[in-house]
């Protein structure tokens, strides 16, 4: 059975009917064919002559050779095995070895709706491939305007769910990151509460705000986002706290891509000052914090979820896991339900 047609498979590789970030925009340069794996799918990424990005299954519709090993032809891709040419819509436009054959003119290559925002390429993984995608709603801090942001991209050898757990666990900031430049202050004990929102929930400390990693928000819908604020010390220059917007995508069962947009609402000279300080001083410190998270996630055992003893600080993890499991079960039911037979006309 296709693992993406099981509840466990969808949990490992990611729910369908979702937008997922695939890679930084700069990873796909004009004239190149790029092969990646995301969310259980083998993908081909390329740009047409106008620079628009396209995301398709990395599989020639003729004999399943890798299109990523083919030839970029501006508005189409030619398979290197037999020369079959496929356009950005997934339609076979030419079969040089057999002109006029039945394959020409057929739209047979799976093509994923794609968009670019905030320096990253996103694709829609639909449960029904023929249905239009939901709108990609980008969080305000990475939508432009008064916000300035930098994208930090990582690939870790751990299931993406381990990173999602980490993001929904504010308390680890006071321990794992206690020597960092932003999370050294505040209490090392806390009581948390969950506050429901229209598209997810906020998990927050009840007795501390604006001191450490004191709250986190999960937005669950057409795309899954995690947002949090961390106070900046005076050495970070003028402006308010810095906000992290995070998105995750499975590469394989035990590897994932992480997108961490580091954002600050600043304008004018304050914006210039922060961007200069970030590139010359703060970026290395932020990567040092991420490295601590990476080392922890990659060292965790494969059965981490099976042998836990959770307590009050972990209620956000429980809420998130129940939500994902329930939705995965619903999607599997839709994928496996028998097709409705067409009514037989009455004579």
From TrEMBL:
Residues 20-123 form the Rieske domain. The keyword Ligase does not apply. InterPro entries: Cholesterol_7-desaturase, Rieske_2Fe-2S, Rieske_2Fe-2S_sf. GO terms for molecular function: dioxygenase activity. Keywords: 2Fe-2S, Dioxygenase, Iron, Iron-sulfur, Metal-binding, Oxidoreductase. PANTHER family: 3-KETOSTEROID-9-ALPHA-MONOOXYGENASE, OXYGENASE COMPONENT, IRON-SULFUR DOMAIN CONTAINING PROTEIN. PROSITE patterns: RIESKE (PS51296). The lineage of its organism: Bacteria, Bacillati, Actinomycetota, Actinomycetes, Pseudonocardiales. It comes from Amycolatopsis deserti. This is 3-phenylpropionate dioxygenase.
